[in-house]
Design goal:
Distance between the termini: 23 Å
Number of domains: 1
Shape: globular
Number of strands: 2
Order of helices and strands: EHEH
Strand content: 15-25%
Number of helices: 2
Largest sheet: 2 strands, parallel
């Protein structure tokens, strides 16, 4: 199943991680400082511009 999380603050990040660990495709919509933080994490990311 594919999920889109709009906003990667605390709650969005928690849900994203749990869904990702459950072998779901997760798309996170983030910007600015949060996007830079997500880029530094050890995830398989596809960054869309």
């Amino acid at each position: 199943m594919r999920f889109v999380i709009y906003g990667a603050d605390v709650i969005g990040s928690i849900f994203s991680g749990k869904l990702f660990k459950s072998v779901h495709e997760v798309i996170i919509v983030a910007r600015n400082k949060r996007l830079e933080t997500i880029k530094m994490l050890d995830f398989c990311l596809k960054i869309l511009k």
